[in-house]
Amino acid sequence: MVSRIHLTKDERAIIERVSQGWRQKLDQWTIARLALARSLQMTEAPSPELYPPLSGQRGGVELHPMQLIGEGRANELEDFTDLYCAMLSIYEGADLFEDEELYHAALQRHVRRGLAVLNEEWRDQSDLNRYILDEILVDRAKEADSGETSDGLGERVTRALGQIGVDAKLQSTSVGPRLTRFSYELPLLDDLDRLRRGQDKIGFALGLGDRKIDIAVGTSERTVVLDVPRPSTTWKTVNWPDIVSALDSPAASKMSLPICLGTSVLGEPLLIDLAEAPHLFIGGTTGSGKSMCLHSILLSLNHNKVLAPELLLVDPKAVEFAGYRGLPNLMGKEPVVTPDDAYRALNDLVDEMERRQTVFKELGARDISEALEKGARLKRIVAVVDELGDLFLNRREIEIPLIKLAQKSRSSGIHLVLATQRPEAATFPGLLRSNIPSRIALTVQKNAESRIILDEGGAEQLLGKGDMLVKFTGQQVVRGHGSRVLPSDISEILR
């Protein structure tokens, strides 16, 4: 039974590092609480494979749940067991009130994941106090009132515009899951330039901190659209069941490989056709929602079991795609987890691409669509590669088959989805970049990383937790919000 919270020797080292970075030394259970809070800010549950149940660890840490969450305290006001059990039950998709062992195991996983995130996000040279304030202990009372109405926010936006000399008239208001969109009529054409120059001042006047207002030209003359981010306490979580019906819509029926990434900023389903992409590159740091994005793609591809493509899943950490084992259309019936096996599997796809070209030539077809019309018994193939940066570090030659596929596999009906936590020039080199025009940027740390993904900045100012910029081939960059995918949603497609 996992009645205590056990941590490894390496996790103890993280606690000591965090303690030393604070202005005054913190005890280990206080840091564990910070880690728990950070993990609970993330949309997906921590992986049981990545954070398996631990017993006592030599050189590690042992915490009693009483120290962590007040479990068993005589004073009921200091015992938060039921609150945490309810939250973790939602994450796990199971009733943890009925199983104390599963509850403590889930609690331990969240603490361990939170420590890993703290260790990755906080750099020694940065101010730990500021990091904790901004990321974990942000004072919601200093933000815009979470109960503020759209009309109240609109009045504050109008006043902020007046402070920079723009006497605009509010035309309409639309409320999305995380942003509120305001449409204004500008009295003068020059007001648009004045508005853009004063963009940061508007954010400051609204108390938005690092969050940025998006400004775009409206559909009619002298109109402008402002997308204003709201406090996270007012966000509406978009779950996979909320948007899955979009894959049965008339718009999706016209697509060869429809994918629902989440919603637009106004809450409408965000659909793309992977066959038209024809490949995707996805980048985002820890906690950005990259994993949720990948799961949304996989669930979309498997929504229609008759038309579902064959899948090659490459998962170097051996945990992200574990839930898809046994999927009927999964090549090899198992995700590929080693760099050597990934290299072989991708070269096999190159061979399949060339075999299909021979079939097309015999049929007098130019691509897979014409070949299918002429009776070819082929299915599209989608290769989803997670942690591309790790693969390149361990087997650089993997770049060769990926480039071949990116250059020539579209007509063969073979498509790539490549994802990484480290969007760098080495991870997304020039030949790949030039042949993968469709990109998804989730939150990144630096402007340079945003430019690697999108060829422009902006992703460093996203809100995290699934907030994304989507650059689809031949179209302008659009903003969207990813959906939350639970383990039960993944299990559903295996039935």
TrEMBL record:
Gene3D superfamilies: P-loop containing nucleotide triphosphate hydrolases. ATP binds at G284, T285, T286, G287, S288, G289, K290, S291. Keywords: ATP-binding, Nucleotide-binding. InterPro entries: AAA+_ATPase, DNA_S_DndE, FtsK/SpoIIIE/SftA, FtsK_dom, P-loop_NTPase. Residues 267-451 form the FtsK domain. Essential cell division protein that coordinates cell division and chromosome segregation. The N-terminus is involved in assembly of the cell-division machinery. The C-terminus functions as a DNA motor that moves dsDNA in an ATP-dependent manner towards the dif recombination site, which is located within the replication terminus region. Translocation stops specifically at Xer-dif sites, where FtsK interacts with the Xer recombinase, allowing activation of chromosome unlinking by recombination. FtsK orienting polar sequences (KOPS) guide the direction of DNA translocation. This is FtsK/SpoIIIE domain-containing protein.
